[in-house]
Amino acid sequence: MNGQSNFPVTDLLKGQVGLITGAGTAYGIGRECVKKFAAAGAKAIYACDLNINAIPSLQEECKKAGYTSIIEGRKLDVSSEDQTVEIVKEITKKHGRFDFYIANAGFANYRNLNDTELVHYDRQVNVMTRGAFIGIKYGSQAMAVTSEEKPQPGGAFVITGSCAGYLGSYSDLPYAVAKTALHGMISGASVHLSSSNIRVNGVAPGFTKSGILSNSQKAEQGEYKNTEDADQLQKNHMWFFERAGLLKAPEYYYNRLQDPEEVADVQLFLTSKLSTCINGQMILCDSGKTSAATGEACTGPVPPVKPLDLS
């Protein structure tokens, strides 16, 4: 992004205002997204989550980095229409504009079908599908508000999907349903908002280091507290990567463990003016894991490419 762009990184979101959900924990995609957007010159970023214990450390980290963005923490259950409307109105009234909505909130509890009850299904769909719909409905209305700060309507949504929207073996059934539905939502919303100068895209992370599994059981119940730091959250996640087989053959690129900032880079790209020609797309960010789902089962051992003979 730095090399070929006509836009300095610090100007990519210069003056823009918006919110990022699922940004309250000490380690994860949402937190990294806030940092990336602050580095890109956003005027104000509202970091929203059920748990906002880690917001003060996020604010301090951005301050030490020299970012001038206003970073506000807000408790938000994205499945609540009232709460979403309230925060979107607050932002738009205070700043005279609303430019981006990053619907990143989510959780994942792995249950087999025998252990999955309707309450589990409903909560996952409410957070990750209904929540995205509510954000699009009211966030787009806020993006249509104009002012001296923002004379023309417009904005960008980036919805966090999952590799589970591409392959059924990645998750439990409710999670797969909730995430797969986002493909249709992004495609349809991009059309419904096309006359409003608003783009809608998504990222579908693969195996990414974050705090999602540490917090999911609590998030399923609603507002919660979590005081674990980034190091502990990373350690808590390693059992899942081991069970998934990624640690057994790390020499393959598709088995690499992704850092959350890698996904946040794509979120920034899709929000910024670097991606103005991209609309209605879900971008799979999984280091090629889905393409290599069967590994070497069919192809046999895959040797490294031989270096070019320069003789």
Automatic annotation (TrEMBL):
It comes from the Eukaryota. Keywords: NADP, Oxidoreductase. GO terms for molecular function: oxidoreductase activity. Residues 301-311 have a biased composition (Pro residues). Pfam families: adh_short (PF00106). Residues 292-311 are annotated as: Disordered. PROSITE patterns: ADH_SHORT. Belongs to the short-chain dehydrogenases/reductases (SDR) family. This is Uncharacterized protein. It comes from Exophiala viscosa.
